[in-house]
Design goal:
The complex is a heterodimer of chains A (113) and B (111). Chain A has no helices and 11 strands. Chain A is mainly β. In chain B, the strands form 2 sheets. In chain B, strands 2, 4, 5, 9, 10 and 11 form a 6-stranded mixed sheet that branches. A 5-stranded antiparallel sheet of chain B has the order 1-3-8-7-6, with no helix packed on it. Classes of the chains: A mainly beta (113), B mainly beta (111).
Chain lengths: 113, 111
């Protein structure tokens, strides 16, 4: 399977705990995006990378959120001190530089209890 | 930030019927994409429209881009249960590929 993969697919955690999600993009794609989607809404942009450089972060990404793409390949999204409002589907997408098409992974569904 | 409004929010039809969903904005789209998302999965790109007045067809799906590039529609002919899903429109907001999505139209096609 050469598509975008995300792990874990589901995560249940207690409020206050830290969680980390991983995204493996399509291998030749140098752009990587993170989005968050809550029930009944479309995905909202969080941040994106060109290779290992993080180019922009949304105001939705509070100080509790951090994303990395250390070698320009896979990326991680960490949420510290989770809150119930963080419950959502976290989607990763990748694309070629200059390309209009983004390929999405299946997402990680986070539930904070 | 460009606001994308999709209508209707929800649509339930019988197999074989036709349906149309809409995506509108108060400002001009540089380009517009339509995605379909199934439960528990990420969105899958259906089409990208760029030119005002453009019409694209994908089997039973017809996509139109308004002449003024402020609106778009997706028409499905003879809908099938496999067409069930959340249909999202999205606009490319910058040269880096950042997408702005609408809230989506949930389509349910019953046999």
């Amino acid at each position: 399977d050469t598509g975008v993969s995300q792990n874990p697919r589901h995560k249940i955690t207690k409020r206050g705990q830290n969680v980390t999600f991983r995204c493996d993009p399509i291998s030749e794609h140098n752009r990587l995006y993170w989005y968050r989607q809550t029930l009944g809404q479309g995905p909202e942009f969080l941040t994106y990378f060109q290779n290992e450089a993080q180019l922009e972060k949304s105001r939705l990404l509070s100080d509790r959120f951090s994303a990395e793409r250390p070698k320009g390949s896979f990326s991680t999204l960490e949420i510290q001190r989770t809150e119930q409002g963080d419950s959502a589907m976290y989607l990763c997408a990748s694309s070629l530089a200059g390309g209009r098409e983004q390929y999405f992974g299946p997402g990680t569904r986070l539930t904070v209890t | 930030t460009q606001l994308l409004e999709q209508s209707p929010q929800f649509l339930s039809i019988q197999e074989g019927e036709n349906l149309t969903v809409y995506c509108n904005s108060s400002s001009v789209f540089s380009s517009l994409q339509w995605y379909r998302q199934e439960p528990g999965e990420g969105p899958v790109l259906l089409v990208t429209v760029v030119t005002g007045g453009e019409v694209k067809k994908l089997k039973r799906l017809t996509f139109q881009f308004g002449d003024a590039r402020k609106d778009s529609s997706l028409h499905i002919t003879a809908a099938q249960p496999g067409d069930t899903g959340l249909y999202l429109c999205a606009s490319l907001t910058d040269s880096w590929g950042k997408l702005q999505f609408g809230a989506g139209t949930q389509v349910v096609v019953t046999p």
